[in-house]
């Protein structure tokens, strides 16, 4: 009798729970949010299995009736208009209603990486007091993803949307803020920023687990990452907890600032990085733009660890719809967190304005190595984005040549139009050339747009 009573009470409790279950939304959907403009946007959430609900979209006055599936989930694809707002949305279920207010339609960018992306005005940036005072931009919105790790991909994150004000801006990603401010100055539309970053994190923790299942070389390379006191180095754990829950949320593109924590396996960074980008695009279902920042010159210990990551990042631009910002002219070699976040954000925005939005016709990249050709003891180095090539200083001192023995020697260099002629008395038959090949090499070669050349090696 006792067990029968417990069973009846249990079934009654379950029935009561299903009867009064409330519809829920993931936290990425809240008042003050920004939705991607001119897009098919997925709305999703949870409720009781079989529960009927109605969704109202304020920008077009439409109502949608749908039913929760047997897994207690529901989803709906709606069309968004061009930039505008504010709008409201309503979600009505069997036992509760959710009303979202002050919604804007604009451009949404996901911002991720390690500490240089996480770095805020409160952390320390140039002209911080003035920047904070002037950070009154009600149509720029911030969503900060709370730091979470997970063994398996999650379906929700912790966080909330906030309006850009002198109160909220100082704790948000400075690079992302300056990116949004530049876009808004040019386009005058709402900008939504989602910051999912974690200081000291390696790229492996942001990469889905299936990548390591299908790429054993990346799994082995991940073992070289040294543990640190700030964040786990267990592969995929930050992707599972902070990126996977966002993959249904429509974005315009991604900004990335990371690489400092991958100096231990620098030689494999391009392979890891491009595979990670591809896995994110696959998770979202489309090839969104992915713009990133090359790590700055800094004394990383091993003389070549940092510059190897920079060169791997340069080579990663072979992946379509990517763009890289070079920072070797806006940093100091004694600070792994350069305080000039303004120019970083602006340069990222300029790439977006040119490549995604077709709003700029000026140069947005610094000179990038294309190829070398030998003529006896001389090497001609050809660059892309090299119109107006110039050197800051009496001599160009950062080029080196190597013969078949692979040993590099300092070389003399002269500029001829958009190329550089390089030679060395110590290398009669050159086979390889490299430029600014040290962890701490600061920019000395620029194009006419005032943007620095990336370090490189041809071997």
From TrEMBL:
<dbReference type="Pfam" id="PF03629">
    <property type="entry name" value="SASA"/>
</dbReference>
<keyword id="KW-0378">Hydrolase</keyword>
<dbReference type="InterPro" id="IPR036514">
    <property type="entry name" value="SGNH_hydro_sf"/>
</dbReference>
<dbReference type="GO" id="GO:0005975">
    <property type="term" value="P:carbohydrate metabolic process"/>
</dbReference>
<dbReference type="InterPro" id="IPR005181">
    <property type="entry name" value="SASA"/>
</dbReference>
<dbReference type="GO" id="GO:0001681">
    <property type="term" value="F:sialate O-acetylesterase activity"/>
</dbReference>
<feature type="domain" description="Sialate O-acetylesterase">
    <location>
        <begin position="107"/>
        <end position="352"/>
    </location>
</feature>
<protein>
    <submittedName>
        <fullName>Sialate O-acetylesterase</fullName>
    </submittedName>
</protein>
<dbReference type="InterPro" id="IPR039329">
    <property type="entry name" value="SIAE"/>
</dbReference>
């Amino acid at each position: 009798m006792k067990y029968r009573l417990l069973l009846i009470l249990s079934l009654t409790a379950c029935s009561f729970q299903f009867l009064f279950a409330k519809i829920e939304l993931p936290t990425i959907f809240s008042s003050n949010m920004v939705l991607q403009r001119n897009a098919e946007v997925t709305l999703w959430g949870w409720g009781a299995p079989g529960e009927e609900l109605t969704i109202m979209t304020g920008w077009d006055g439409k109502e949608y009736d749908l039913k929760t599936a047997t897994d207690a989930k529901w989803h709906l694809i709606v069309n968004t208009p061009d930039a505008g707002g504010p709008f409201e949305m309503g979600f009505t279920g069997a036992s509760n209603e959710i009303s979202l207010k002050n919604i804007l339609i604009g451009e949404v960018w996901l911002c991720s990486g390690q500490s240089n992306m996480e770095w805020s005005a409160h952390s320390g940036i140039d002209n911080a007091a003035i920047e904070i005072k002037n950070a009154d931009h009600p149509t720029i919105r911030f969503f900060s993803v709370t730091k979470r790790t997970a063994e398996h991909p999650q379906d929700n994150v912790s966080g909330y949307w906030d309006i850009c004000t002198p109160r909220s801006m100082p704790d948000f990603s400075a690079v992302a803020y300056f990116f949004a401010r530049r876009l808004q100055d040019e386009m005058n539309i709402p900008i939504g920023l989602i910051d999912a970053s974690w200081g000291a994190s390696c790229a492996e923790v942001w990469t889905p687990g299936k990548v390591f299942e299908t790429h054993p070389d990346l799994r082995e390379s991940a073992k070289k990452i040294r543990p640190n006191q700030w964040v786990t180095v267990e592969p995929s754990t930050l992707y599972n907890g902070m990126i996977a829950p966002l993959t249904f949320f429509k974005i315009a593109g991604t900004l990335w600032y990371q690489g400092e924590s991958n100096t231990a396996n620098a030689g494999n960074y391009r392979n890891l990085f491009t595979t990670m980008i591809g896995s994110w695009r696959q998770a979202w279902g489309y090839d969104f733009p992915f713009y990133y920042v090359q790590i700055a010159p800094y004394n990383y210990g091993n003389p070549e660890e940092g510059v190897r990551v920079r060169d791997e990042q340069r080579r990663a631009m072979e992946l379509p719809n990517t763009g890289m910002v070079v920072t070797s002219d806006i940093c100091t070699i004694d600070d792994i967190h350069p305080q000039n976040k303004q120019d970083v954000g602006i340069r990222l925005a300029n790439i977006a304005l040119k490549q995604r939005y077709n709003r700029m016709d000026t140069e947005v990249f610094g000179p990038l190595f294309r190829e070398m050709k030998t003529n006896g003891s001389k090497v001609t180095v050809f660059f892309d984005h090299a119109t107006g090539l110039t050197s800051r200083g009496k001599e160009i001192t950062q080029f080196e040549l190597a013969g078949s023995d692979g040993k590099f020697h300092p070389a003399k260099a002269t500029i001829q139009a958009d190329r550089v002629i390089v030679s060395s008395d110590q290398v009669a038959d050159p086979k390889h050339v490299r430029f600014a090949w040290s962890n701490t090499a600061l920019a000395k070669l620029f194009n006419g747009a005032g943007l620095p050349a990336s370090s490189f090696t041809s071997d």
